[in-house]
Structures are given as structure tokens and as C-alpha cells.
Amino acid sequence: MSASLGKVVVFGGSGFIGRHIVQRLARTGARIIIPSRHPGQVTPLRTAGEVGQIVPIAIDVNDDAAVAAAVAESDAVINLIGILAPSRGNGFEAVQHQAAARIARAAAAAGTRTFVQMSAIGADATSDSAYASSKGAGEAAVRAVFPGAVILRPSIVFGPGDGFFHRFGRMARILPFLPLIGGGHTRFQPVYAGDVADAVMVALNDPTCTGRTYELGGPRAYSFKELLDYVRRQAGVPGRWLVTLPFPIATLQATFMELLPGKPLTRDQVRLLRRDNVVSGSLPGLTDLGIMPTALELIVPTYLRPPRG
């Protein structure tokens, strides 16, 4: 990788994908700034680089001046900020649209050379899902002020601590059954967090990526049922039931579950499950970036399989 990246600002750098990216950036010698509402959460990442190389700063991404100060004199800006469910003061529109627009405006004004926006497969400003529509609006807002931005759209991302396999593996061990929402027919193309991080690094170093959108998926697609079946086997509970939950019933249950701490299921997530989450084939992907997609079977067992006692 290039050692001349200079100052790189990573919004969302302390998150699941962000940790992989920061570790790779540190090896290039880049000076890494990680703006965060909770800069203390960034502290463990500082050991990935030399003393003073990785710098957390406190920020409110709703503050234009604070964002502008964070990206000043930056060579590259990466926006990874995203949420799976809204919380008080952090709705989809504010986080995935308005904040993305604010960060891109500030980067453009600062003369930043490269901007990478992390989106998602299914991003569509006209979607009936608040998650997907805000991701789509965020993409459009970024493109409007930073036309050369590189947009990355991953499918569900796996790796230690992920929000899918880790979550359902934990559920499989404590619940009598796993829910097949909509019959489990929705298709996904899980992509490894390390591959997504490698895609970011290519986008930072390869000028031919400028202004392009990439869909990032793993080597094959699976139905939701296939994935849950795989989860229960790897979690050591192969006999756990898979119970079909029609969409109307799942929506009704989500009405109550989204009121619980952690929002285990929301109505918006049920809407998302009505559409496949796989690459379209009409946009470039990992192989176009020179990255061979990693099979989930090589990674998921390393953190999902119960320890031998």
C-alpha cells in the first residue's frame, strides 16, 4: 500500500468495519484522525499505530464548524457512519443522509483529494425502507458536492463481532427456535469485513476508482434459511428449530420489539427482508478492485463455533 496517504479522517473509525480499515491505514504511515462522539472508544485502536499516529477527537457530526475543523488539511476522508435502527437523537435521516452530506461538503471545501462513502446494497432514495432510502439520499448528497467520491455498497458484512452471524449465533444458543421471517427466502451475499477494508484501501490509492460505485458481495449468495441453518450448526445447536414467520406477523411482532432495549427487530428491518440483498451485476465489485472475495465458511467458524470443553 502507498505510504503517502498523508492525513486521513475516518468517521465511524471505531466501529466494526472501521477497526479493520484503521489497522490497514496505520501500516501505510498515514496520520489517522478518528472523530467520534465517544473518543474514549477509540483508545484501544491507538496501539495499531505508532505513538501519536492515530488521534481520536470529540465531535458532534451535526455541527458544521466541528466537521469542517476535523477534515481541515485532510488528504482523504472516509465516512463509515451508519445505524441499523434509530435511537433518540439519531434517526436514519440525520445520520445516513444529513451527516453524510455535511461531511462531504466539508471535505470538498477543504480540498480533500479522496472521499469514500460507505453505503449498502439496496440503497435507494425512493425505497419504502427508511434505512435504504436514507442510504440512497446520502449517496446522492455526497455525489452532489463531491462528484469524485467513491461509493461502496456491501451486502451484510461478516467477521468477529458482526451484527448478523454473531447475533443469530447467540440467539440460537438461548432461544428454542430461530425465526424464518417471510419463510427465509430472502437472499444475501455476505462479504468479509477484511475484504471491505481492502476495497477502501484500493479506493484511496487507485485514481481509476474516482467517481465510481462498487457493490461488494462474497463469492456466493445464500437464502436467509440457508444462513440460519448454517448458524445453528456452527453454534453447536443443529437441532434448533427454524420456524416460519410470515411478513405480516413479523411486522406485528416488530411493532413491540422495536420498543425494547437494543431494538432486537424493527418494522423497517422487516421491510428490508422483503428484498434480496445481493449484487446486481450491473456495477463493478470486489474482483474489479483486484480483491478475491473470502468465503464465509473460512471465517465464521473461527468465532461462532463453541469452544471445546
Describe this structure in words.
With 309 residues, the chain is of the alpha/beta class. It has 10 helices and 13 strands. The strands form 4 sheets. A 7-stranded parallel sheet has the order 3-2-1-4-5-6-11, with helices on both faces. The longest helix is centred in the first third of the chain and has 19 residues, at 92-110.
**First-last Cα distance:** 42 Å
SSE topology string:
EHEEHEHEHEEHEEEHEEHEHHH
> What about the largest sheet?
7 strands, parallel
Tally of separate helices: 10
User: Uncertain regions: pLDDT < 50 for 5+ in a row?
Assistant: none
Strand order of the main beta sheet, please? 3-2-1-4-5-6-11
User: Structural class of the secondary elements?
Assistant: alpha/beta
Beta-sheet strand percentage?
15-25%
Shape summary: globular
CATH topology of the domain at 7-148: Rossmann fold
Instruction: Return the CATH architecture of the domain at 7-148.
Output: 3-Layer(aba) Sandwich
Helical residue percent?
25-40%
Q: What radius of gyration results from the CA coordinates?
A: 19 Å
Mean pLDDT: 94
- Write out the CATH superfamily name of the domain at 7-148: NAD(P)-binding Rossmann-like Domain
Report the strand count. Answer: 13
Name the CATH class of the domain at 7-148. Answer: Alpha Beta
